Amino acid sequence: MEICFITADSLDTVWQEKMSAAIKSDVLVFGFNGLGLVSYKKELAGETEYFQDLARLSRELSSVVVCGCDTDAYGVFRHSAVIADKGKILGVSDMAHALDESEFVAGGNFRVYDTGAGKIGVIVAEDLFFPESARVLAMCDADIIICVFKKLEGPMPQIMLRAGAFANGVSMALCAKNYAAVADIKGNIVMSGGGKIVKSKIKIEKDFHLISLRQRGLYRDFNSGY
Predict the structure, then answer these.
(1) Superfamily per CATH, domain 2-201
(2) What is the CA radius of gyration of the chain?
(3) In the predicted structure, residue 224 carries a pLDDT above the cut 60
(4) Which of 201, 158, 164 is nearest to 176 (CA)?
């Protein structure tokens, strides 16, 4: 699978100026720069066509497009990611955790999208910091997990990317502002870059760890209370 990461340019810029750079990629991933703020009210009224543009781009490229955005659902703001495949919007994933005090609230589900490029699990922004996010998507048989992120501050996103890939036996990719990275199932960073357009070929492979727990001696069930 070849993935093209757009870490700085918007969807419009890529379509008008840099289409040739994205051609022949199986998956095109934008960070939150791709669409900006999307109002569901304006989309439904036909005042804007952000989602339609995303679908059209996926049709033009004959590939999967994943794009981060902020969504406004009649005054309720969420961090989200939209995914389209060959001209069709497959769905919108929201960040499922709300962190600290923010105008952006927790949203909907984790989901694995069945696409022409394979089964793609999507993580939105700081959901990457919660191990269960990657675990749920891996258990739903994702071939690869893609995280769209805002702006990296500190090493934690890369650490969680590597840990999630290793712990769940599935490759994980990250697209943020001016940065992209891919971690393999051994937890190694196999690609990282800060260019506006970064490409990577990813081998789809999975690994399942056999885990045993000590159940004698001082062992106590964590659910038994204290």
Answers:
(1) Carbon-nitrogen hydrolase (3.60.110.10)
(2) 18
(3) no
(4) 158
